[in-house]
Specification:
By secondary structure, the chain is an alpha/beta fold. The chain contains 20 helices and 17 strands. The strands form 4 sheets. It has a 5-stranded parallel β-sheet. Strand 15 and strand 16 form a beta hairpin. It is elongated and about 90 Å long. The C terminus is likely disordered. InterPro entries: AN11006-like.
Length: about 575
């Protein structure tokens, strides 16, 4: 019996992306302040009036340390006047990603799994988030010691703030580090001696639990002399090798302390054993390929390529793309490393061939869909003499042995004027390029995307939204001229075509409908795809995205803007004192 597929059958990279969209990665978790119970002044122990903080920036008020008279139970209070202002998040929340922390804390507390065993989501949470602990903050280092040993094994980043003296009140809502308020550590005082013991205990637990080359550790402490610094840094020497380390010892530049910090960081990041030279060339080719797969040869985003201006003539100044990246450094190490890196680089990356200058003929990062039609300067087309098309320039710039390794190739043709005014020699060169692809590329493993849709968006006042240019009857001749020769590439793994949209009329209120309902299903795209792939080919079943990459980018920007507007209105409604009386 065939086992049904589950979420864990997806590739690890895809699962990590899902966790990221859930808000479980790239966040900052304040172990002291997450789920911290705050009592308004003179209400302890009335739990009906308490509120919980989600991070250090959750509010703009002072919290004061108190102890119950008989049991010496620790709790924290705030003034009534300041209590009314809680909930106003500062820009620090967005900077550190604190808003994802509540769900992360639920995992740490065992709400979704055992606190002893670490399931995959918990491992991702521990490894891809930044955890912070402060001794003078509520409950000190106690929240750190509540984390199990198995969970500490997967801890990725930890920042420890070691205060010199206890504080009675803390002003939350500002910078968590509060370096100006950090008092020097005094090892002659009772608080300083006990703090050093707690620090040694914390480091010892890390040494027993963490993995080598996995933890990034940061320490913030204010020391007044080298002797105190050595006493604080000495426990760190028992740690396994760290992935990275940072030390902040004094707000003033003291050469002796700076040198001591540099030596400590260098020692913590260096193996305790004498390392022999790594003999990479003696490894089997399969192992060398595996090593290169974990290097920066493989990129998450598509690699964009633009033709150099010298190949196409002079480009107008606003759209000049004179900056060209050189080869990857690994290709320059040696002939053997270059030979090993070529298959990995071209098989594992996606290549995007762009026209010269900026996409759309304008700067999309400066365009706001709410502002209507872009300024006239943005609507300019780059019409320059084309002696060779961009696809030909890209493929001819590569070594012949590299073409067989390309697995994903996308070509954008947004500027029709360039191709209708190109000389006959450019079209003949385009036909030769297709023959080169047919003979030199591994077609059964190649996904080819031809995008003739990308263009600058315009404001559709009827739908109150930005739209992409519609198709005209004259465009069909250009489509045939470009796409029909691609029938020579029979046997591709996938072939996706994007043409300009065909608008359809949808009755009713237009703002109630998703943009997918505003455009007719494009049978012409399917016609060209079937001409290359065969009559039974269906790109929709091959997971062809309905929007091309730039439509998706612009639509996400619109959704982010709408979400920000809704969040602003929601916060105003929640925290308007007048609404509470209705």
């Amino acid at each position: 019996m065939i086992r049904p597929l589950t979420f864990y059958d997806l590739p690890l990279k895809a699962r990590k992306l899902v966790y990221h969209y859930l808000g479980w990665s790239d966040c900052t978790v304040d172990l002291n302040y997450n789920q911290l119970v705050i009592f308004p002044q003179e209400t302890y122990p009335d739990k009906e009036r308490v509120e919980k903080m989600f991070c250090f920036h959750d509010g703009w008020f002072d919290i004061t340390h108190r102890e119950e008279y008989h049991t010496l139970t620790e709790y924290w209070t705030c003034d009534w006047d300041q209590y009314e202002t809680r909930g106003y998040h500062s820009h620090e929340c967005s900077r550190y990603g604190c808003r994802g922390a509540p769900s992360i804390t639920d995992w740490l507390n065992g709400k979704y799994g055992s606190k002893k065993e670490a399931p995959e989501p918990l491992k991702i949470i521990l490894g891809s988030n930044h955890f912070r602990i402060c001794r003078s903050s509520p409950y000190g280092f106690a929240p750190f010691f509540d984390i199990s040993s198995d969970m500490l094994r997967d801890l990725g980043t930890l920042t420890v703030r070691l205060d010199g003296e206890p504080v009675e009140s803390i002003e939350v809502g500002h910078c968590w580090e509060r370096l100006d308020q950090l008092l020097p550590l005094n090892l002659d005082s009772r608080f300083g001696k006990y703090g050093l013991k707690e620090w040694e205990r914390l480091v010892q637990r890390l040494a027993e639990c963490i993995r080598p080359d996995y933890l990034t550790l940061y320490l913030i402490v204010n020391v007044k002399d080298a002797a105190t610094a050595q006493a604080v840094l000495k426990p760190l020497y028992q740690l396994p090798r760290l992935k990275d380390c940072g030390l902040w010892l004094n707000k003033e530049h003291v050469p002796e302390l700076s040198m001591l910090a540099q030596e400590t960081v260098k020692r913590l990041k260096k193996s305790a054993h004498t390392e022999q030279p790594f003999k990479y060339p003696d490894l089997p080719i399969e192992v060398r390929w595996r090593i290169l797969e974990y290097s920066d040869l493989v990129y998450d985003n598509a690699l964009e390529w633009k033709p150099p201006p010298s190949s196409l003539g002079r480009v107008p100044r606003p759209f000049c793309s004179c900056i060209q990246d050189g080869p990857h450094p690994l290709f320059l190490v040696s002939k053997q490393v270059h030979h090993d890196a070529v298959p990995i680089f071209f098989q594992r990356n996606r290549f995007l061939v762009l026209p010269p200058g900026d996409i759309y003929g304008y700067r999309p990062q400066l365009y706001d869909p709410y502002m209507g039609v872009p300024p006239p300067d943005y609507r300019r087309r780059i019409v320059i003499p084309m002696h060779r098309v961009e696809l030909s320039l890209f493929l001819s710039s590569l070594a012949r042995n590299a073409l067989q390794h390309i697995r994903y190739l996308e070509w954008l043709l947004p500027q029709f004027e360039n191709y209708t005014t190109a000389p006959k020699s450019a079209y003949l060169d385009y036909l030769d390029t297709i023959e080169l692809m047919a003979h030199s590329m591994n077609l059964p493993l190649l996904t080819l995307v031809v995008d003739l849709r990308t263009e600058y968006p315009y404001q559709d006042w009827e739908l109150d939204n930005f739209c992409w240019p519609r198709r005209h009857a004259a465009d069909g001749a250009l489509y045939d001229r470009i796409l029909q020769p691609l029938c020579r590439l029979e046997g591709l793994k996938d072939f996706f075509v994007y043409l300009r949209r065909v608008k359809k009329h949808t009755p009713g209120y237009p703002w109630q409908f998703h943009p997918r309902l505003r455009w007719a299903y494009d049978k012409d795209e399917m016609k060209y795809e079937k001409a290359v792939m065969g009559a039974n080919y269906d790109s929709r079943r091959r997971a062809k995205p309905w929007m091309n990459r730039f439509e998706t980018k612009m639509w996400r920007r619109r959704e982010d803007a709408d979400e920000a507007e809704r969040s602003r209105l929601y916060d105003y409604r929640d925290y308007d004192p007048g609404l509470d009386d209705r």
